[in-house]
Design a protein that fits this description.
The protein has 8 helices and 2 strands, in the order H-E-E-H-H-H-H-H-H-H. With about 190 residues, it is mainly α. The protein has a two-stranded antiparallel sheet with strand order 1-2. Helix 3 (about 60-75) runs antiparallel to helix 5 (about 95-115). A hairpin with a 5-residue loop joins strand 1 (about 35) and strand 2 (about 40-45). Helices cover about 75% and strands about 0% of the residues. The two termini are about 30 Å apart. The longest helix is centred in the first third of the chain and has 32 residues, at about 1-35. It has a single domain, classed as Arp2/3 complex 21 kDa subunit ARPC3 (Orthogonal Bundle). The protein has helices spanning about 1-35, 45-55, 60-75, 85-90, 95-115, 120-145, 155-160, 165-180; strands spanning about 35, 40-45.
């Protein structure tokens, strides 16, 4: 009897993990549709990524990011401006979306090594964002060179990174503040 109860509990935890992951992927999609009009318009995608990782932990948060990208890849309009498809992912800015996976993996690793402390969260999310910027910029330069013409690193950074640094830093801070108000069980990673 005790073995059956343990099996049910494990099955329940897996069901809960799936539910949280699916809900987080939906939240990421909704935040992708929210566009803040400025000189360079930006979405709330990075806010959602930071918040999801902080609330769900590295394992479930990274899984939610992968589910979000998979949904978009197969045609569900979850990306910015209700777009979808492999063309978006393999397009010039798709590397930044794929870079969200790096952010999740870096967060997951940091939480595993150092525990969930505020300084670890800030550092790992910041390093994850830098990794996302680096991967996305390299991707952008390769795709842009193949489809248009080669560009230099400073041009790519001035188009794709510099305008987003301050908004992303603000989104990181807001996501950490918001995530402290949300309590989800079993987010040790």
């Amino acid at each position: 009897m005790n073995g059956t109860g343990s099996l049910k509990k494990k099955r329940r935890i897996k069901t809960v993990d799936i539910a949280y992951t699916a809900l987080a992927a939906v939240i990421l999609a909704v935040c992708s549709w929210i566009s803040i009009p400025t000189t360079v318009p930006f979405t709330m995608q990075t806010f959602a990524v930071f918040c999801i990782l902080s609330v769900l932990g590295g394992k479930r948060g990274t899984a939610a990011i992968i589910v979000y990208l998979a949904l978009g890849a197969v045609g569900v309009p979850v990306f910015a401006e209700f777009t979808s498809g492999f063309g978006i992912i393999f397009g010039s800015t798709g590397g930044y979306m794929l870079g969200f996976i790096l952010t999740g993996l870096i967060y997951w690793l940091a939480m595993s090594l150092f525990g969930k402390k505020l300084w670890v969260e800030i550092t790992s999310l910041s390093v994850g964002l830098l990794a996302c910027y680096a991967f996305g910029t390299a991707w952008f330069m390769l795709v842009y060179a193949r489809t248009t013409e080669p560009i230099g690193i400073m041009t790519a950074l001035s188009w794709c990174v510099f305008p987003f640094i301050i908004p992303d830093a603000v989104k990181l801070a807001l996501a950490l503040l918001a995530s402290k108000r949300i309590k989800i069980p079993n987010t040790k990673d």
